[in-house]
């Protein structure tokens, strides 16, 4: 057995890597999630559906001309996806976003979407919250998607100019009022005429993504599409 493999096995025995979903030790060749958890994740496969049959796309009908709407997983309370998102958002496990983004980006590329976008932009955090948390969870997902799709991404393409309250316990109208007019495009010339994919961790009502899409379209983006790690059923 090659020496690097022996060393890796020894390190794995002393400091075992664990699955980010179930916390069981990973086997050789497993990448952040064990094979069992990866097989049991609740995938949406929305990117395989015609637009008229995509329930996520229908959420934006009559509001904004969103070109494509994707979400990798279904959010289920107390399930693996909620645990993964908690690890990403509150435990500093940015690898969750990167690996899920890379896997999803590869699936989107295989489905023919690698040429559908020019630039990936994550939904931004307010500067104060970013300083408190130390990172934006949407950045890691954007980075992973960019790797999987072979596209550029930009962390500061959108700016949040007003700090908002938590969206967790708000209804749809309250969520929209909470995020209306709080985003701006940092450099409009960088999005003008380009096909933008805006990404976030979770889509609930879609109010945050709608607000981002609105300012991008106003800045001259050719099209705006949205993608999230997970979507919550309404």
UniProtKB/TrEMBL annotation:
<comment type="similarity">
    <text>Belongs to the ComF/GntX family.</text>
</comment>
<feature type="domain" description="Double zinc ribbon">
    <location>
        <begin position="11"/>
        <end position="43"/>
    </location>
</feature>
<dbReference type="InterPro" id="IPR044005">
    <property type="entry name" value="DZR_2"/>
</dbReference>
<dbReference type="Pfam" id="PF18912">
    <property type="entry name" value="DZR_2"/>
</dbReference>
<feature type="domain" description="Phosphoribosyltransferase">
    <location>
        <begin position="165"/>
        <end position="230"/>
    </location>
</feature>
<dbReference type="InterPro" id="IPR000836">
    <property type="entry name" value="PRTase_dom"/>
</dbReference>
<protein>
    <submittedName>
        <fullName>Amidophosphoribosyltransferase</fullName>
    </submittedName>
</protein>
<dbReference type="Pfam" id="PF00156">
    <property type="entry name" value="Pribosyltran"/>
</dbReference>
<dbReference type="InterPro" id="IPR029057">
    <property type="entry name" value="PRTase-like"/>
</dbReference>
<dbReference type="InterPro" id="IPR051910">
    <property type="entry name" value="ComF/GntX_DNA_util-trans"/>
</dbReference>
């Amino acid at each position: 057995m090659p020496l690097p493999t022996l060393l890796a096995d020894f390190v794995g025995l002393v400091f075992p890597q664990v699955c980010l979903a179930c916390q069981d030790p990973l086997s050789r060749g497993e990448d952040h999630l064990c094979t069992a958890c990866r097989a049991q994740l609740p995938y949406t496969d929305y990117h395989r559906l015609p637009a008229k049959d995509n329930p996520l796309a229908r959420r934006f009908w009559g509001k904004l001309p969103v070109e494509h709407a994707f979400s990798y997983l279904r959010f289920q309370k107390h399930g693996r996806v909620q645990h993964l998102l908690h690890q990403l958002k509150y435990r500093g496990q940015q690898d969750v976003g990167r690996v899920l983004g890379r896997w999803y980006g590869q699936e989107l590329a295989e489905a023919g979407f690698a040429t559908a976008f020019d630039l990936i932009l994550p939904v931004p955090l307010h500067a104060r919250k970013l300083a408190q948390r130390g990172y934006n969870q949407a950045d890691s997902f954007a980075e992973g998607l960019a790797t999987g799709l072979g596209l550029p991404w930009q962390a500061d393409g959108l700016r949040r100019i007003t700090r908002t309250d938590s969206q967790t316990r708000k209804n749809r109208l309250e969520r929209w009022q909470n995020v209306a007019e709080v985003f701006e495009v940092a450099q409009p010339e960088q999005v003008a005429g380009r096909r933008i994919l805006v990404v976030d961790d979770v889509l609930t009502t879609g109010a945050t993504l709608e607000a981002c899409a609105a300012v991008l379209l106003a800045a001259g983006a050719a099209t705006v599409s949205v993608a999230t790690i997970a979507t919550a059923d309404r």
